[in-house]
Amino acid sequence: MTTSSAPGKIYLFGEHAVVYGEPAVPCAIEQRARVTVEQRSDTALRVSADDLTLDGFTVEYDGAATGVPDVDVPQALVEAAMSYVQDAINQALDAADVEDAGFEISIESDIPLGAGLGSSAAVVVATIDAATRELGTVLSAEEIADRAYHVENTVQNGEASRADTFCSAMGGAVRVEGDSCGCINAPSDLPIVIGYDGGSGDTGKLVAGVRDLRNEYTFASDTISTIGDLVRRGETALAEGDTERIGELMNINHGLLSALGVSSRSLANMVWAARDAGAHGAKLTGAGGGGCIVALDPTDETETALQYTPGCERAFRAELTETGVTQV
Ligand code: MEV
Questions:
Q1: 119: CA distance to ligand 1 center in Å?
Q2: Which of 16, 83, 98, 186 lies at a C-alpha separation of 20 to 30 Å from 90?
Q3: How far apart are the C-alpha atoms of 292 and 271, rounded to whole Å?
Q4: How far is the CA of 175 from the centre of ligand 1 (A)?
């Protein structure tokens, strides 16, 4: 039996635009997914996920799902989650040069599903690490990131960036631009507050929506390159540890994401509640449509304000973590 864990992430800047080759800066956070893998004597795959949703679910696989799990999240999200696990196992088999093997897989996650905190990337990264170790092969974090990217890209119909998976595998703050990925310095004490509306967005659909907009309107492709410019300024602010400037740029980034149609009423409410409470800045994080916002506030004001904001189910602090994928 082997257990590995990998962190979730927030995007300080650049989600969506990164799909079109612009830079993005996600940062790994302490909230993690832990995946335990045990090889079976047959070739079946059995997945149980306790904390991925409030109710948890168990799905038995024999190549395909044999039952419909009774869970409190849209069926499409569960199917996507299962595709991620199935494809991660296929990557592990390929990396370990094993033709077929069955596994008992148990997933525990602090990261809500589809909420913009990188749950799928963390699960895929931890699954590849645990399954390859279980088969006697140890991969570098870079190779895990690369294999995890291919999983996300397949599940997201060829429209994924390397950002989520590279960040989860490596930990810390990273910069991703096309195929070029690297770790960067960020202040370790960024005062991150997360607001969660209890919902989720369908990353594939949201990414496709931005693509349609970009194909139809010049303003959308201009917006995407403006996000790229903003990310470059954000990198300078990060290097200088200028939290106020980082917050200001996060506010602008949120406005640009709204223009691309990926915000929602509850995300907007939470962003405004954070700003009114005096946060340096606030924006949605990840694909959008619902899920989480990220704000910067060293005081308790934003967390308290979010707790009383209609549509906000949970508000909590998150710390950056330097620990990427690791065996537990
Ligand atoms: C999703 O967490 C981030 C997106 O930029 C998609 C991706 O980068 O693959 C929306």
A1: 12
A2: 16
A3: 10
A4: 13
Active site residue 164: yes
Domain with 297 in it: 192-318
- Whether residues 106 and 228 share a domain: the answer is no
Same domain (yes/no): 257, 212: yes
User: Which of 87, 110, 129, 164 is labelled catalytic?
Assistant: 164
Residues 267, 295 within the same domain: yes
Classify residue 261 as left (phi > 0), alpha (psi -120 to 50) or beta.
left
Residue 326 lies inside a defined structural domain of this protein: no
Q: Where are the beta strands (DSSP E) in the chain?
A: 2-13, 25-39, 45-49, 57-61, 103-109, 173-177, 180-184, 192-196, 281-284, 292-296, 314-318, 326-327
Atom of ligand 1 at shortest range from CA of 287: 10
Verify that 93 and 120 share a domain, yes or no. yes
Per-residue pLDDT 10s for the chain (328 aa) are 999 999 999 999 999 999 999 999 999 999 999 999 999 999 888 888 765 543 344 444 444 444 444 445 566 666 777 788 999 999 999 999 999 999 999 998 888 877 889 998 999 999 999 999 999 999 999 999 999 999 999 888 888 999 999 999 999 999 999 999 999 999 989 999 999 999 988 888 999 999 999 999 999 999 999 999 999 999 999 999 999 999 999 999 999 999 999 999 999 999 999 999 999 999 999 999 999 999 999 999 999 999 999 999 999 999 999 999 999 9
Q: Ligand 1 atom closest to Cα of 14?
A: 5
Identify whether residues 172 and 215 lie together within a single domain: no
Q: Which two structure tokens, joined as six digits, stand for 249?
A: 């740029």
Amino acid at 79: E
Name the nearest CA neighbour of 91 among 146, 160, 162, 147.
Answer: 147
CATH number of the domain encompassing residue 127: 3.30.230.10
Q: Are residues 155 and 200 in the same domain?
A: no
What is the CA(100)–ligand 1 centre distance, in A?
31
